[in-house]
C-alpha cells in the first residue's frame, strides 16, 4: 500500500488500549486523523462501514481496518514513517522481551486486575448504562452484576497488581536502566507494558497508596513518568491531528486503496481443511473472549496462521477488516442465517 494512504484511528478519550496505539504513533512520528467514538454502544460510525466489532481502538490504513491493538502495532511496524520501525532498531533478544512483556500485561490477567482496582474509584461504577454495556462485553448475561463482581474481587486484584509492579521493580528495572529492553529511547517493550500502569497511575484516587506507591516502587513510578513525558514530547511534534466525523471517514475510505498482500487462503490450514472455507465465501468474524456476541459479516478474503481478512458486505462503504487468528474466530454464514446483534 502507498505510504500516503490515510491513517485514521477510531478511539475515545482515556481508553487504555487506545493509549497503547497513540504512544506508538507519536514515538514513530506517524501522522493520523481520528474519529472519536462513544464509550459505549451504539457506534454508528463503525456500523456505516459494516463493522460490528465492539472493542476500541480500530485503525484504518486506506480501506483496510485493523482490529485488536497487538495487530494494529504489528501493521504499523510495516508502515513507512518519520522514524524507523522498532524492530529495525532492536536485537532478537530485545524483541523477545517485547513479546514476553506484551503477554505479561494481557495474558496473565494483569490488565483485568487493574480494571478491578481502578473502576470502583471512578463515577463509572455507578453508571448503569456503562455497567450494562460492559456486562454485555464480557458476556455474563443479563443477570451479571458487573459492579458487584468488580467490588468483590478488588482486594485480590490489588495484591495481583502489587506483585506485578514488584516484579518489574526487582528485575528489569533493578539495575537502574531507563527503558525495559535497555534501549536508548522507549521501545516496543515499554509500549507493550506501560499503558495499563499509566492508566492506573493517572486516574485520580485509583492507586491504593497503602499498598502501591512511588515510595515503595520508585523505579516503576519513575519509569512510567519518564515514558509519559517522552510520549507527550513526541505527540507535540506530530502534525495537527484532524478529528473526522463518521461521514467524512466513510467518504475518505470509499476512495482509498486496499492492501491485497494478505489475500491468501492457506489450503493446509486446519480450519480450512476441517470446514472447507474458501475465498469469497460469506462468513462472520468475532472475538472469542470479550464482545463475542457482536459479529462482523463479510466475504472471506484471506486466512493464514496469523491473520483473518474479510470484506464487509453490510455497510454503506465496504472495507477490508483484518483480525489476528489469536482470540478471533471465523465461520461460514449462509445469507438466510444472518442473526446479528
Automatic annotation (TrEMBL):
Signal peptide: none annotated. InterPro entries: DUF7962, Glutathione-S-Trfase_C-like, Glutathione-S-Trfase_C_sf, Glutathione_S-Trfase_N, Thioredoxin-like_sf. The lineage of its organism: Eukaryota, Fungi, Dikarya, Ascomycota, Pezizomycotina. It comes from the Eukaryota. Residues 91-252 form the GST C-terminal domain. Pfam families: DUF7962, GST_N_3. This is GST C-terminal domain-containing protein.
